[in-house]
Amino acid sequence: MSATRLAVQGHRLIQIGVVLFLFTSFQGFAVPYFAAPNLGRSVHTLSGFTGVFLVGLGLVWPRLKLTSMLSRLAFWLLIYSALATIAGFVIAALLGAGGSIIPIAAAGHRGSDAQEMLIQLVMYPAAPTGIISFSLILWGLRGDA
Question: In whole angstroms, what is the distance from residue 45 CA to residue 119 CA?
Fold first, then answer.
């Protein structure tokens, strides 16, 4: 894997992290206006945390020992997992739903069966894609420093 490609991917992760900081800065003003304000606050916190996580991982990314294909796979699965999770929370906050999949954050808000299914369809694939990405990243961090 070329160091240049890893550096570019790391830079993209940092950029996406900063975009999430910008998103969470503006989204914070809207928290009281969501159908489920507690979920709106969760979106705010999750977006900020994910931004920090992506910036940190972007700094580490050039050190990965992965083939070109594996680094692309880890990169895109990571982005998908992070954004799908945030999107699920945003949908739940907007609809005042989510009690079936994120009951603590939803704080009793439950939508129609179709709304709950939509949130599940968005969020469920985020877990296995994240696990695969994290496994590849851990594998890429093997060996001596």
Answer: 18
